[in-house]
Amino acid sequence: MELAKTNWPTVERYLEGSTLLLIPVGSVEQHGPNGLIGTDHLVAEALARRVGETDGILVAPTLAYGMSHHHLAFPGSTSLSPRTLILVVNDILSNFYRNGFRRFFFVNGHGGNDSSLKAAFSKFLLDHPEGRTALA
What φ, ψ does residue 60 adopt, rounded to 5°? Predict the structure, then answer.
């Protein structure tokens, strides 16, 4: 089930049985002259949707942008700074936590995001010790 394609009463009912949320994250960067610029976030999103459909888990909208500074020389590539990515992820987690979610599984399509995601998780868990985060 995709969060963006449902309504708040449906989410409220979902939270009665589960507090798990899948969050796909990727990047917008070059993948050679023939590869798609959106490969990382498109793959993460497709995988999260498949798991969500198979296991009945709610899937948040994809965070398409990530940390890809090393690709900025290529037209179409863009990047968030590590600080910005950490702040954005922490805000996303904190808001979903406020809604009632407690467990967050990030489906990451770009290895360059790992350290910033882990830093965001650390900050979030300091503020919300009952929360749980995982990264794949």
Answer: -75, 160
Q: Could you tell me the CATH number of the domain that includes residue 60?
A: 3.40.50.10310
Mapping DSSP to helix (H, G, I), strand (E, B) and coil, where does residue 35 land? coil
Which structural domain range is residue 57 located in? 3-135
Q: What is the pTM of this model?
A: 0.95
Total domain count for the chain? Answer: 1
CA 119 to chain CA mean position, Å:
14
Measure the CA–CA gap between 106 and 100, rounded to whole angstroms.
Answer: 17
Q: What are the pLDDT tens digits along the chain (136 aa)?
A: 999 999 999 999 999 999 999 999 999 999 999 999 999 999 999 999 999 999 999 999 999 999 999 999 999 999 999 999 999 999 999 999 999 999 999 999 999 999 999 999 999 999 999 999 999 9
